[in-house]
Give the backbone structure.
Amino acid sequence: MSVLRIGHINIRVLDMDAAMNHYVNVNGMVKTHEDAAGNMYLKCWDEWDKYSVILSQSDTAGMNHIAYKVSSDAALDDYKKSIAEYGIDVVEEDAGVLECVGRSLRFNLPSGHEMRLYAEKEFMGTDVGSTNPDPWPDGLKGAGVHWLDHALLMCELNPEEAINKVAEATKFMIDVLGFYLVEQVMVGPDGDIQAATWLSCSNTPHDIAFVGGPVMGFHHCAFFLDSWSDVLKAADVMSKNRVKIDVTPQRHGITRGYTIYFFDPSGNRNETFAGLGYLAQPDRPVTTWTEDELGAGIFYHTRELNEAFTSVYT
Ligand SMILES: [Fe+2]
């Protein structure tokens, strides 16, 4: 059994029209479904399953749940058993509880974030198809993002109270869901507090990341682009559309990715991310960043964290 990749993320938005304009016209996704409650479902052009983002109208911004797709239906039974054995309550939900998805598992990570696992989602195919495909489709809007790539979740970290939900969530992902640690930030006087982690279930540098903060929350979800020039063009699209940019095009020291952080109209942070800086492997030595070089780890060019990076999230 194995986890294949991030499947979707359910984001709360304050204004559905403004949110749809952002995810469709700025990010370049397309609406593929709408449920009876008015939740909107969207996919990127290079994705083949029905959706990777669910937008839900709410009074608060943030994330309702994050979902990962697993390799087979049988894997769900194995995960249900291993999650319960780890001491975490897990609920099996019938097919259709998640729209267009087969049966699924619902549980909370040790950090408190709600996660779903599923094996089947309605197939749509990519916009270029699977037979003699062109490298990209005509009519792309905005940044034309390829796929939902990963998410970063904020976890409660309070060393004085001996609370480290980053370490707890990381251990769960490794021990139960089969992820492996790719990079980490170690802080504290002895450098022994795991304050941030990047974990993979594939060969990309991260499929999920955890960063410590005062309270749990949703830091960002990231959408994949091909190259540095696509990241630059995405920044042009954002300025053109008066999108609030958090960090203009930069390189991450961690993962070596090219990045822009920006906000949707509800204040949820998005990222456009390019450059698979290296091929992650389970036996690749874990990269460790020390507290004094953390700035360069996050933003390699300025080598400084902007104040908002770890304090502003939903
Ligand atoms: Fe990211």
